[in-house]
Amino acid sequence: MDRRSFVMTGAWLSAAGGGAWPWLARAASTSNTLAVVDASLGEGRVLSGWATRRAIPVFETGDDIGALWYAALAPRLAATPGLVIGVTRASDYFVLGELALRSARMVEHERAWHTGPRTPVAFLIGPAAQVGAPGPVRHIG
Hints:
This protein is an alpha/beta fold and 141 residues long. The protein has five helices and five strands.
């Protein structure tokens, strides 16, 4: 990562964790929160480190977000419902969102787009009752 990307990524997460996105801090204080990151994105690596320091399990998107959903995330969320925070590419977010919103009866609580060469998406998905503050919510199913 070059110096400019490092500075921009650090500023992006500082804003996210420091109050620009209060939902990120709220998710960190909620039990059973999971983090999904694309480690090829600077923002994903920063969120991964942030989540790890808070003992939040981190899952890398890998090559197949659908496989990650069915093999790891869905079974874990079925056993113990919780929140999913993350930073992924828009295409992975779309697939994850559709799977979570349709099959797990979850809702999108927050989403933020960050402009850049790969357009990362930061998001919070979870059960409707688990996040108290309203946000831009999309219900499906």
